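Try this one yourself first.
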């Protein structure tokens, strides 16, 4: 049996080109991802401090007592877990805000493009001309 004929499927059906992105949207995406990376770095730093640095400082904090228990007990028993949950909640809240900011930038960019084109094409996107 003969070897199969090499197919040029990729050239017959090239992948679709991504839509053009305006400079304003490119800046909004860049700002979004920089914020995301900075937020992750900050939250991971706090997590590192809670996981590794705070236990190393426990002997120095052993003299402080709350309700009859030493302060390192609270860090180990409840504090670290509560801080991790707080980090997750902070990430969720701040990323929802960043998502809304990016969505507003997208709508504003789409509105600017529609405003230039002169019609919304039934897309329901608000234009900058005050429709």
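Now uncover the answer:
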């Amino acid at each position: 049996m003969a070897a199969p004929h090499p197919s040029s499927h990729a050239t017959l059906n090239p992948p679709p080109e991504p839509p053009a992105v305006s400079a304003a949207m490119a800046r909004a995406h860049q700002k979004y991802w920089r914020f995301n990376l900075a937020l992750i770095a900050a939250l991971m730093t706090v997590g590192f401090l809670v996981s590794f640095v705070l236990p190393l400082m426990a002997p120095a904090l052993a003299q402080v007592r709350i309700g009859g228990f030493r302060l390192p007990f609270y860090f180990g028993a409840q504090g670290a877990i509560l801080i991790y949950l707080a980090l997750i909640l902070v990430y969720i809240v701040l990323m929802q805000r960043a998502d809304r900011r990016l969505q507003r930038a997208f709508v504003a960019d789409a509105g600017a493009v529609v405003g230039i084109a002169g019609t919304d094409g039934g897309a329901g996107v608000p234009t900058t001309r005050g429709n």
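Discussion: The CA atoms of residues 91 and 109 lie 26 Å apart. The radius of gyration is 27 Å.
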